[in-house]
Write a structure and sequence with these properties.
Strand content: 5-15%
Number of strands: 6
Order of helices and strands: HHHEEHEEHEEHHH
CATH class of the largest domain: Mainly Alpha
Number of domains: 3
Distance between the termini: 86 Å
Helix content: 55-70%
């Protein structure tokens, strides 16, 4: 039996439920924040940050035109606001290693974004690590702040030491569980970004990879069993349908035989 769940139903205190809910929210917000980190965006970020000097003033490309990737994140459409700047911007983009072309009379420059380099992918992986550590620190702050509130409540005799101990134990259990889940999500994201370049760099990466691989195997086994059960169900359904069809055929044959026998036995 889970100790945290057991004592939560037997002790009336509001400190640990609030702290655990805040931790769960931190986990959810962390997972959502990782969605914006995409390998295909690495070079697009570099592209947006390029600075071209116009009339002695450095200007970002995003200031000179509208940057969009409507169909493919690896293909950029840059609509230049000032047509007179198109040739200069086009040449600048090419000089910075981005294949680009421009159709005469159009305000659009079409840029092909190179695949991110290993170094760029590793930088994204480092960003995931930073966010993972930040999320884990946020959990610790939640625990610390709640602990201070519990101590103040004890001093004012709102709660006794027994309830305080139970609440803190539940918070510790949640902290351990949710911190582990945050780290697992972080490793999964880094593996997705780095692919074959992924390597264990954090202290507990190796152990987390084992947990992830075990989860993947369990999920595959679950899918396989579900497919097997579906195939068996379809086979049984097919057998039942065949049996029903055969029964219908036999019934019709019997009915035809009765009709034939009646016709033979009826005198002209």
């Amino acid at each position: 039996m889970d100790e945290g769940n057991y004592i939560s139903s037997n002790v009336d205190e509001g400190y640990s439920p609030e702290a655990i809910a805040n931790m769960e929210n931190a986990l959810e917000e962390f997972a959502v924040s990782l969605l914006e980190i995409k390998p295909e965006d690495a070079n697009i970020a570099v592209f947006r940050g390029l600075k071209l000097t116009l009339k002695g003033r450095p200007r970002r490309l995003a200031e000179l035109g509208n940057v969009e990737s409507p169909d493919d994140p690896m293909k950029i459409e840059l609509m230049i606001y000032n047509k007179e700047q198109i040739e200069q911007v086009l040449e600048f983009i090419k000089q910075n290693g981005f294949p680009a072309k421009h159709d005469t009379g159009s305000q659009f420059i079409h840029i092909k974004v190179p695949k991110p380099s290993r170094m760029q992918l590793e930088e994204l992986g480092d960003e995931v690590i930073r966010r993972t550590n930040s999320a884990a620190t946020r959990l610790m702050k939640i625990k610390t702040n709640t602990g201070l509130r519990i101590r103040a409540a004890m001093e004012k005799e709102y709660i006794d030491q027994r309830i305080s101990g139970i609440a803190l134990k539940k918070i510790d259990n949640a902290l351990e569980r949710i911190t582990k889940e945050i780290k697992i999500i972080g490793v999964i994201k880094r593996k997705a970004i780095l692919g074959s370049f992924f390597k264990t760099v954090e202290r507990d990466d190796a152990d987390l990879v084992k947990i992830i691989n075990k989860r993947i195997k369990l999920e595959k086994d679950k899918i396989f069993k579900e497919q097997e059960l579906r195939i068996q169900a379809e086979a049984l359904e097919s057998q039942a349908q065949n049996a029903e069809n055969m029964e219908n055929v036999n019934t019709k044959n019997v009915q035809h035989q009765i009709v034939d026998d009646n016709n033979i036995s009826t005198p002209n």
